Amino acid sequence: MRRNASLLSDGGFLLLFIACFISIVFTSRDPNLYLQNIVLLNVAFLIAIITYFTAITAGLILNILFVFGYGTFTIYQTVVQGDVVTIQSYFWLIMTPVFTAITWMFTQASKLLQEENDALKKRNSSLATMDENTNLKNMLSFQKDATVFMALSDRYHIPLTLLVLNVKYWHELRRMIGEEQLNAAVYNISAISQTSIRANDSLYMLAQDNPMWGLLLFADRDGADIVMNRLRSRLAEINESEKSERNRFELNLKMGAYEYKAEETPTPLEWIDRARKELEYDV
Length: 283
Hints:
By secondary structure, this protein is of the alpha+beta class. 67% of the residues lie in helices and 9% in strands.
């Protein structure tokens, strides 16, 4: 399908150039008919443009009106004024529908390519397991991994805690500073979180609009408190060091943790919801 659409688009683009070249050469061949040809060429372009932005039906109706009007004008010149029917009359009766047909072909190919592109984007977003900005695992990966870890926790009685964190006053910061600084802040927090956990723990980007990170820790609630204190210390060190270098906004995190309990958090999404509610107590 993609190959056919590409060929159709390339063919339409090439034919449009050829039609324009032929029309320009024909328009300039006779100085006495130059003004008339320019007007007819503009009419052909106008119908083609309307076809591009509407549909082939509108183009066909306009072409019928043009053929009827220009044919009537030609008959009037032949019968009343005694002019001879020349190639001038036939050329525009043929070229105007040709312009419309080429434009329609190009438009159809563009629509097919756009539809395929949208379908690929939707498929990619539904299958993607990594956040494109931070290269962290996303919500889809979290749900898959959490299901496995929850089953392991149930079977081997391994303590498992979800720690979630986001930036305090994120919306206010977004209004005050630029997008580039915000992206850098998100990346820095991701890096701090990554270095503050053990190798067998996992870090996820659970939300992007108001960034929320999730850490799956093979630890109980007390172990999660140790990680939270470590994160706060690392962030305080970075804020202090960067404050001395330049006038910069200060980042503060809200954190909440909830230990996995099969009866209270039977699904990954309910587990996230429980942990998110713990953020409300971190003020």
